[in-house]
Amino acid sequence: MADTLIIFIDSLRYDQAAEMDFLGRMPERCPVRPGFGYSVNIHAELFAGYRPDEVGYFCEWMVNPKESPGHRWCRLLPLLDVIFRPYVLNRGLQRLLTRGYRPDHIMPNIPLRHLDKFAVAGEHILSSRFPRPTLFSEHPGLQVLPYRGIAPKGSRDEAVSRRALAALAEHSQLFVPLPDLDGIGHNHGVGSWEHEEHLARLDRWVAELAREFRHRYPAGHLFVVSDHGMVNVKGGIRLDIEECCGRSGLHSYLCFSDATLLRVWVYDEALRQPLTEFLSSLSRGHLLASEERRHYGLTNPAFGDFIMVLEEGYCFEPSTFARHIPKAMHGYHPRLPSQWGIFAHDGPPLDGSSPQEMVQVYPLLRDALRE
Ligand SMILES: [Zn+2]
User: Fold this and answer.
1) Does the predicted TM-score (pTM) go above 0.90?
2) Cα(306)–Cα(251) distance, integer angstroms
3) Measuring CA to CA, which of 114, 195, 300, 345 is 20 to 30 A from 290?
């Protein structure tokens, strides 16, 4: 049980961390490529070592009519969708019909007529529903500081850092999640005054925690990790797939666009060719080839017959996840430097080389905790 402090900063870009006073001087630091997708998948890579194929889901929502929030009303939904056509009404009724469905997840922008097709599949790494062993379930001695409900968004990092400083007196294995940078990036953009200011504050809090940890545990491991980067959004892409390939449904095809990603499931084989042509013709989209799907652990056909990722800086608008585009986004192709997170370490030498991909971070954290 080695003394270990793990600081997790949501959405901290490697290139920005490298320029920070404290973080940029940590003795070992390197960029880490996330896998495809968003937090539910990247946290499974980072804190459990599983790619989507191994954890069984890709993105938060997947096709699953029986478990969907609209299953009970499946016959009524097409009619309701016509009656409640204006967006505000559609959204209002959607909220009413999905009340109580998985309150731990944000209800995305699924139109009424598709409310009986998709269900939550991806689970938060700290949830008891997470399907595999994790760093946290395997190391009950690792004290995890909570961040939910302790302060308003934007002020949680400061509150967590303060609690972490005090907790170090009692806990020699501590996990400190700092979640605020993600929302600040989405709302204000990378390079904005708010984002820059928060980066500077984060650097000071991390330096303070590192000092306190070293003072109490001189031979311990200090890690600073992030899940992905972030990049400013230049524009929205309207997905006119139904104009070109016909109406979507369980007898034709389904699609779900999560901001930067598009997944398409084909149910009518006759549509495979037109869908392939349509998707290949989208100028700002990149269709994942089977080789890429193998590399990133996305071979499960339940993840979609097609998976597409948009060019850096573009988001679907509207998407099945949100009506409007944010100022900045992540979830682009992992090979882009703007998407890289950071791995930084200070302490006794680690077994194993510097991680290049997110799944390679997990064994380093695990082994340090076990020492
Ligand atoms: Zn985010």
Assistant:
1) yes
2) 17
3) 114
Question: Under 8 Å CB-to-CB from 204, ≥6 apart: which residues?
Answer: 22
CA of 329 to the centre of ligand 1 (A): 7
- Do 259 and 40 meet the contact criterion of CB atoms below 8 Å apart? no
Q: What is the pLDDT of residues 46-60, one digit of tens each?
A: 999 999 999 999 999
Question: Is residue 161 packed enough to be buried (19+ CB in 10 Å), middle (13-18) or exposed (0-12)?
Answer: buried
Of the candidates 19, 1, 5, 25, which has an alpha carbon nearest to the alpha carbon of residue 199? 19
Distance (angstroms) between ligand 1 centre and the Cα of 228 equals 9
Give dist(CA 320, CA 316) in Å, integer. 9
- What are phi and psi for residue 67, nearest 5 degrees? -95, 5
pLDDT at 1 over 80: no
Residue 175 has pLDDT above 80, yes or no: yes
* Pairing of the two strands 4-9 and 221-226: parallel
Which segments of the chain belong to CATH 3.40.720.10? 4-54+124-231+339-370
Q: Reply yes or no on domain 234-325 having CATH 3.40.50.970.
A: no
How many angstroms separate the alpha carbon of residue 203 from the centre of ligand 1? Answer: 20
